[in-house]
Design goal:
Number of strands: 5
Strand content: 5-15%
Order of helices and strands: EHEHHEHEHHEHHHHHHHH
Number of helices: 14
Helix content: 40-55%
C-alpha cells in the first residue's frame, strides 16, 4: 500500500482472507493511512456511485455531484489533497459487475498535480473473481494477486491447540489437520467433534470423535444414530459392559471374537430398523 498499488486477495469461502486482510490493515498507523471500507452486505448491488460516496464521505464528509465531470473533479481533489495514504477495500469483490471493476481501475488511474495513482486498492473475493479478471486485462495486469492456500498440517494443529488448549488429544488434532486447511473448515469440524465427544461423555476429543463427525462412521456413532443402547448390544452378544465399551470405543484390550460378535449384532439391529444391508457402506 506504500506504493498505492492494487492487491487482489483470492480464496474459498472460510479461507480467512477477510480476517487476514483486516489484521494487516489494523497494523497501519491511522495518522498515515486512511482505510476506506466500501463493502456492503448486498455485494452484488455495489455500484460506482456507492464507491464514490464511500471515498468522498469518508475523506471530506460530502456526497458525489450528479454531473459526471464535476464528480470526477471532486474525487480527484479529495484523493489528491488527502495527506494520508488512502486505501480502498472492497470485500466480496467476486460479486461486483464487470463495469464496476473497470470503473475502479479508472479511479486508480486518476492524477492530481502530476501524481498518480492517488490511492491503493484491495479487492477481496472468491475464485470466480479470477475469471472476471481474465476478461479485464487492464486490471489484472496491474494487480498483485494473492491466493490463500490454507494452513499446513502443523499450523492446523497449532491453531486448534491455541483456540482450545487441552480439549483435543494429539490424534484428534492430527486427524483434523488431514482434512481441514481453512479456519471455517477447522472450526466446523472441531464443533462437530466436540458435540460427538460430549454425547459420549468423553473428557477430551479423540480421533474416533473426529472420524464420526466427518462421516467416517464408527460403530459407536452408528448406535447413537440408530438409537441402539449398550444394554441391547450386551443382551444380543452375551458380553459384559466393559467388553462392549472397549470394542465400540476402540480402546483397551478385547478379542477379535468379541469385536466380531459386537459388529455383527449391531449390523443386524440396524438392518432390522432400516432394511439397509451394508450399514457402513
Amino acid at each position: 500500500m506504500d506504493e498505492r498499488g492494487i492487491v487482489i486477495v483470492i480464496g474459498d469461502a472460510g479461507s480467512g482472507k477477510t480476517a487476514a486482510v483486516w489484521s494487516a490493515l489494523q497494523q497501519l498507523p491511522k495518522s498515515k493511512y486512511a482505510v476506506i471500507d466500501a463493502s456492503i452486505m448486498e455485494a452484488e448491488r455495489v455500484s460506482l456511485t456507492h464507491i464514490y460516496t464511500a471515498l468522498l464521505y469518508t475523506l471530506q464528509g460530502i456526497t458525489p455531484r450528479r454531473n459526471a465531470y464535476l464528480r470526477q473533479l471532486q474525487i480527484r481533489e479529495a484523493l489528491g489533497t488527502e495527506r494520508r495514504r488512502v486505501v480502498l477495500v472492497i470485500d466480496e469483490a467476486h460479486a461486483l459487475q464487470r463495469y464496476v471493476l473497470s470503473g475502479i481501475k479508472r479511479v486508480w488511474n486518476l492524477k492530481y498535480a502530476g501524481t498518480s495513482p492517488l490511492l491503493g486498492i484491495i479487492l477481496v473475493g472468491q475464485n470466480p473473481l479470477l475469471q472476471k479478471l481474465q476478461q479485464l486485462y487492464e486490471l489484472e495486469g496491474r494487480a498483485e494477486i494473492v491466493q490463500m492456500s490454507g494452513l499446513t498440517q502443523d499450523e492446523v494443529v497449532g491453531y486448534i491447540n491455541h483456540k482450545a488448549p487441552g480439549i483435543f488429544n494429539k490424534e484428534a488434532t492430527q486427524e483434523i489437520a488431514k482434512i481441514a486447511r481453512f479456519p471455517l473448515q477447522i472450526n466446523e469440524t472441531c464443533l462437530r467433534a466436540l458435540k460427538t465427544a460430549y454425547y459420549f461423555g468423553d473428557k477430551t476429543v479423540a480421533r474416533r470423535d473426529v472420524l464420526a463427525a466427518i462421516g467416517n462412521q464408527t460403530y459407536r456413532w452408528l448406535i447413537y444414530q440408530h438409537n441402539i443402547k449398550y444394554r441391547d448390544v450386551m443382551r444380543r452378544t452375551g458380553l459384559g459392559v466393559a467388553t462392549v465399551y472397549r470394542v465400540l470405543n476402540q480402546t483397551g484390550a478385547y478379542s477379535k471374537d468379541a469385536e466380531k460378535r459386537v459388529i455383527n449384532e449391531i449390523d443386524k439391529m440396524i438392518r432390522e430398523k432400516t432394511g439397509v444391508e451394508n450399514v457402513k457402506a
